Amino acid sequence: MGRKNGPSLLVPEKMSWATATRSIRKCKTRIEKIGGSRVDTEPTAWGLDVQVYNLVWTGKEAMKKGIPILKRAGFESVEDLPRTAVGFSSKAYQDLPPQLRLSATSNGEQRDRVRVPNAQGLHSTIQFLLQEYLNLVDWKGLELPSTERRCKRV
User: Is the pLDDT of residue 128 over 70?
Assistant: First the structure.
């Protein structure tokens, strides 16, 4: 799962933006296949609250606008974004709804949060929507190295 860089050096590939957000896009596709849409559907019918349901659409739009800006700022992958640990008692702690979890084995606990930094040209509204969208990613299910393991690796 790595790529060769030179004659014998194996460099592990970083997680792509698409890989990170795949479970959210799959949820959106399931809703659309059954006839749901952004404006005509009651979010609770899908087991999602209104804010999360709306982010399924607005977050994807924010990604299209924001990722090129973040890449120009040096954040080629979601793994390049800064992260913070989140405790159970923190207001930032989040338990993802089952519809957004990567697999049935993921319990939805999000102990790490990927942070969307300020970047030149990144409008604050897009930054906010990107942050909220990335908060819906099942980082635990993706097995993104925790902030503790990441610090030890460096």
Answer: yes
Alpha carbon distance 81, 9 (integer Å): 24
d(CA 78, CA 22) in angstroms, rounded, equals 13
Domain for residue 6, yes or no?
A: no
Residue with tokens 């209104």: 50
Question: Is 34 a domain residue?
Answer: yes
Q: How far apart are CA 19 and CA 23, in angstroms?
A: 8
Q: What tokens does 1 get?
A: 């799962």
Q: Which two tokens stand for residue 16?
A: 């792509």
pLDDT in the model for residue 88: 54
Query: Distances in Å between the alpha carbon of 143 and those of 38, 96, 103?
Result: 30, 15, 12
Range of the structural domain that residue 109 is part of: 15-153
- What is the total count of domains within the chain? 1
